């Protein structure tokens, strides 16, 4: 039996937004094993200048990422969708082990298989150093509260 991760393509505006929120929630858990389950076993990634393939590589990447990017909080927003593809924009805030804060902005292009698992993820990301007073994400670690402003509402 194949794994399934609804909603399944083809996506509508509603199901694309649901898929993006599910991804945001998973990434905000900072649980590499949980996040990796949303991808096909042979999923291909480009993350900045790093190229990965497969769940094991994704899980190892995320473990490294969240050991460096501390107090990570993320918001994703659908940019466009068609068929089995979704494009999102995102911003996340984090600090390094010296206490320096950053807001990382980017875009991701996602392609899903018929079971709703992501088989391709292409991410472009830029980091902006920010002062702690310039942070906009102040919810407790974990899922972003439903009443927290979106990227658009925050002017990001």
From TrEMBL:
Highest taxon listed in the record's lineage: Bacteria
Pfam families, alphabetized: DUF1348
Alphabetized SUPFAM superfamilies for the sequence: NTF2-like
PANTHER family for this protein: SLL0781 PROTEIN
The protein, known as: DUF1348 family protein
